[in-house]
Write a structure and sequence with these properties.
Layout: H1 3-7, H2 11-36, H3 45-63, H4 67-83, H5 88-106, H6 113-125, H7 128-136, H8 138-147, H9 152-160, H10 164-195
Helix pairs in contact: 2-3, 2-4, 3-6, 3-10, 4-5, 5-6, 5-7, 6-10, 7-8
Length: 200
């Protein structure tokens, strides 16, 4: 493979990036959405969001092992999140963490599974951005979400459970679940994905 192909993107790459960006968002919604729907559980959205996406993330790195690929996914997630009314903290959290994750996985040319799992853990921290804003600038967060149509009752119940312990559970739980999901993705990459010819 020549230098240009390693760094550049083909039309197929761009289509793959777009598809995986949507798939990663759908994974987050499927397993994180039920938490977000309940105000007293919403802080655990990142934990749920990390549950299903590990194998998808690992497959994506195998299909598009290029530094800018994951960064573009971050842009896609940021745009989709904005269009669907997500808080800007979550949208930019995904963008920033995708960029950092790309740099981490890129250090080993996207071929080291341990580093790829670490990259997934970093990626999974992205949606915490909105909750970090909530904890450290609550009035701004509440004002933004009220303007987006969030009901006051939801915010009141959410605020009642916003403790330091909740934040610790959110962070630790997300890291642990992302680690397990990422490791599952690695296992599938070594067996089913490679056997099926989905990934080399």
């Amino acid at each position: 493979m020549n230098e240009r192909n390693e760094k550049g993107f083909s039309a197929k790459d761009l289509i793959t990036i777009g598809i995986f960006g949507v798939l990663l968002l759908l994974c987050a919604i499927l397993t994180g959405g039920p938490f977000a729907a309940v105000p007293t559980l919403t802080f655990y959205y990142p934990i749920g969001a990390a549950l299903l996406a590990g194998p998808v993330f690992m497959l994506f790195l195998a299909k598009v092992p290029k530094l800018g690929g994951l960064m573009i996914v971050g842009v896609v997630l940021c745009i989709l999140g904005t269009l669907t009314g997500m808080h800007w903290g979550m949208n930019f959290g995904y963008l920033i963490c995708c960029c950092i994750a790309a740099l981490v996985a890129g250090l080993k040319k996207f071929r080291n599974m341990g580093w790829n799992v670490l990259a997934y853990i970093i990626y999974s921290i992205g949606p915490m951005g909105t909750y970090i804003v909530f904890f450290f600038n609550r009035e701004s967060w509440i004002s933004f979400m009220l303007n987006k149509g969030t009901e006051q009752e939801y915010i009141t119940q959410m605020s009642a459970v916003a403790t330091v312990q909740t934040m610790i559970i959110m962070v630790a739980g997300t890291v642990i679940v992302a680690l397990l999901s990422g490791m599952l993705g690695v296992k599938l990459m070594k067996k089913q994905f490679v056997k099926a010819g989905i990934a080399a």
